[in-house]
Amino acid sequence: MQQRELIRISKFLSLILRHRPDRIGLALDRHGWADVDELIACARRHGVALDRALIEQVVAKNDKQRFTLSADGRQIRANQGHSLPVDLQLAPVTPPELLYHGTAGRFMASIKREGLRPGNRQHVHLSVDEATALAVGRRHGQPVVLVVRAAAMAAAGYPFYCAANGVWLTGQVPVAFIEFPPEAN
């Protein structure tokens, strides 16, 4: 399978499993899981040729590890990034001292006023390293990497979760816990 085709299917799965299962008539359970056979059938009815082997390949080769198959391989879900209300059944965990958030410079004024908010998603996404945050920021424009004092936030009572792919999640990040780079001031 060509990389381009894997990326196309990954984008399709992201749309369906994170935001719009209704677009193809698919139902997710309250934990975000979809039946693989139902996903294949619904996708085919809407002109997207999927099969189990292709889904397994996308799950295995996705560089961001966006998806998880259940242990028995009968269900699939997105690891995070949902705009739909789903309970990923993640237990709160103690974060590292610092986490990073990649964004675009054009959002700095808003972030300095309101902190980091999840927007149309359930959580703010944070990275364990600056390089990942920088790559995320590039997708949105001129990148800016913000440092989040995660351990201090957790000590103040804000819960953190770590998704199956290593992305850190929290409900919001108040301005008081964000360190802005000098060029963002």
Note the topology.
Layout: H1 3-19, E1 34-35, H2 36-45, H3 52-61, E2 67-69, E3 75-78, E4 99-104, H4 108-114, E5 124-126, H5 130-138, E6 143-148, H6 150-155, E7 161-162, E8 168-170, E9 178-179
Helix pairs in contact: 1-3
Could you describe the 3D structure shown?
There is one protein chain. With 185 residues, the protein is α+β, with helices and mostly antiparallel strands. The protein has helices at residues 3-19, 36-45, 52-61, 108-114, 130-138, 150-155; strands at residues 34-35, 67-69, 75-78, 99-104, 124-126, 143-148, 161-162, 168-170, 178-179.
Rg, rounded, reads 18 Å
The backbone outline, from C-alpha atoms, is elongated
- Uncertain spans: none
Task: Characterize the largest beta sheet: strand count, sense, and whether it forms a barrel.
Answer: 3 strands, antiparallel
CATH topology value of the largest domain: ADP-ribosylation fold
| Overall number of strands | 9
How would you state the average pLDDT, rounded? 93
Distance linking N and C termini: 46 Å
What percent of the residues sit in helical stretches (DSSP H or I)? Answer: 25-40%
What structural keywords apply?
185 residues; alpha+beta; Arc Repressor Mutant, subunit A; ADP-ribosylation fold; three-stranded antiparallel beta sheet; 9 strands
Outline of the structure:
The protein is α+β, with helices and mostly antiparallel strands.
